[in-house]
Amino acid sequence: MSLGAVGVTSPVAIADGIPGVTFGTETGAPVETPTDAGPELTDQGLEPYTQAMLLGYAAEEQGDYQTALINFRRALAERPGDSYALRAIANMESYIAAQRREIARQQQLAALNLQVDAAVAVRDWACAAATVDEMITLVPPNSLERSRLVTYRGELSSLLDARSDISQWSSVCPG
């Protein structure tokens, strides 16, 4: 059935099934036009606080905690003392600190791995074993990497027990 068949010649606005009522005016109350300028809006039509918070959350979701932190601080500048912005800032600072700790841990593991390689190259089993022991403390428990290191440490223990190449021991490790 076409609209013309029921006597309607032009489309009628319908909101929530109510003919003649457009979205936002379902109550029948007159639409209010703001008399003052209200909060300043950005290009996207959002308050600077809201835009900064949304940008911060989007950056956080992407793992870009520095950008998120900048935006949450902008939001806080728009609304000093805002609990949501303060919590978001604290979270980002925590995430950034965790990232830095992880980078430092990875760098330390890489340096220790080089030391193990140097010790093994000259058959300094004591140094290699001590270095692997240190590496084990830096990897998460129950991880595949930790299991690999523990197994390797067992192999080094066999060489230590055999006192193989004892003249080379402690020639590579610092101290």
TrEMBL record:
TPR-type repeats, residues: 49-82
SUPFAM superfamilies attached to this UniProt entry: TPR-like
Alphabetical UniProt keywords: TPR repeat
InterPro entries, per the entry: TPR-like_helical_dom_sf (IPR011990), TPR_rpt (IPR019734)
Protein's name in the database: Tetratricopeptide repeat protein
Source taxonomy: Bacteria, Bacillati, Cyanobacteriota, Cyanophyceae, Oscillatoriophycideae
